[in-house]
Amino acid sequence: xxxxxxxxxxxxxxxxxxxxxxxxxxxxxxxxxxxxxxxxxxxxxxxxxxxxxxxxxxxxxxxxxxxxxxxxxxxxxxxxxxxxxxxxxxxxxxxxxxxxxxxxxxxxxxxxxxxxxxxxxxxxxxxxxxxxxxxxxxxxxxxxxxxxxxxxxxxxxxxxxxxxxxxxxxxxxxxxxxxxxxxxxxxxxxxxxxxxxxxxxxxxxxxxxxxxxxxx
Length: 216
Fold this sequence. Notes:
6 helices
């Protein structure tokens, strides 16, 4: 992680190929990277690295018993983390991925991470090239929690991230203002009928029109 910080100051960098390679290297070595998405700025750690996850929770002031979502490069990458994708979830991801929909699914027993508590995991493929490329370069998912202090305002720009987290992160990828500005919608597909946990960028009506399902 050498060179990730300079004089205890977080570096802001444009989302070019060199920055993304550097960010992936920081993640491989247990660091934290803030990045733009299609909703709000996210905070990446390698969920397979317990120390990196600890630093993420500490940076946000988040309770360690609260799981964070995971972001993937492609739906095909879910297999190692997810035990099963029911038909209703398949319909949702085909309709809304890549995009601002987080789906809660049964967690695979073989996948263990301090970022995921319990037997379910929240997953998403975002409609933004930066987090997808970070996950691809890392060879696995990245954490998808917002890059802010717990309870703080949603971070829509790199400056928003820096004002809240400062040098608690190693690198901020400055991709300009997030085009969405609203957190993702969260649907729990581990229950029947599926439950809308959070109505965000995709409305209940949009979900129901697309699937023909009445969400709890």
